[in-house]
Fold SET domain-containing protein.
Amino acid sequence: MSRLVRYCRGLPRFPNPPPVKPQLLALNLSTTSSTAENVTPADRLAGPPPIRVDLTESAGRGVFASRRIGAGELIHTAKPVLCHPSLSSISAACYFCLKKVISEGQSPTFCSRKCEDSAKVFYDVEKKADWSEFDAYCRSQGLKYPQMVKRLACQVISGAASAELLDILQPASVSAEMALMMEEGYGSLRRALSAANIPDGKTTFLSREWYYGVLARIRINAFRIELALSSYEDLLSSAAACVEAEAAVGNAVYMLPSFYNHDCDPNAHIVWIENADAKLKALRDIEADEELRICYIDASLDHDARQTVLLQGFGFKCNCPRCLSGD
C-alpha cells in the first residue's frame, strides 16, 4: 500500500455537501499521455489517454482504463480550467500557473511574460476593483474557494470564459445553510465589481444562484496544489524528501481529474512538479476496464480519521476495501 499519496483535494469549510447524482457526460480525452509501456517520461508521445469516463455501480461517474496501464506510467496530464494562489502565496506563486517565484512585494506576480500575457485579459478586470473587503472576508473565515469564484467572474466579464464553464461538474444544489454562509462573499464580490464601474451588461450572469452553484462545484472538485519542485523519479526515490519539499501554493479545478473517484488504497495519484499542470500517474499495474481511483485525503490517516474527514469534507462514507477491512 502506497503512502506517497498526500492530500489531493482541499477540504471544504462549509457544511456537508449534498449527495452527488450520477451523470454521464461525453468528454474530449485528447490530453497528453503515453502510448506505450516502459518508456521514459522524455519519450512520452501526444495522443488519447488510455482511459474512458463511464458510470460506476455505486459512485456515479468514474474513470476506467481502456487498456492495461503499467505501474509508474504517465496516464495523462491536465491543465486547470480555473486556479488561484492562496492568499498567503500571492507574492510567492505565479498568479497564473502557480509556479513558485521570488518576489519582494506583496502584489500578484508572474513567473514569465507568457503567463503575464495569458492572465492579462482577466487580470485587467481584477485590477479595476478594490478587493480589500473581499480578501478580508476570506482571511477572517479561512476561505480559499471564493477567490476562485472571483477569478471566474472576472474571466466571464472579460470574455475569457463562459459563465457555464463548470456546469459539467457536480454538485449543482446548495443547502439553505450553505447559502446563508455564502451570502456575505456574494455581497462583497458584487460590491467590489459595482464600485469598479463594470458595465451592468457584463455582470448579468452574476446572480446569487450562479455564485452559490459555482462555489458548490469548486468546493467539491478543487485540488490543493502542492509542488514537488523535483523530477518524478526523485519523487519516487525519496518519499520523505518529497514531503519536506512540497508546499501548498493554491487550488485548481480540472475537468478530467474531477471525475476520478476516491479510494483509500488508490491505484493512481496526481503530482504537481513545477506548476498547476497535473500529472496522473499509475501507482501499480492497472488492468483494462479497471476503475482508476485516487485518494482525496491523506492516505496515512487511520480508519476512523479517514471516515470522519471524508464524511465531513466530501459528504460520503467510504466503503473501499481498505475501509471495509478496518485498516
About this structure: The domain at 2-79+254-324 is CATH 2.170.270.10 (Beta-clip-like). DSSP finds nine helices and ten strands in the chain.
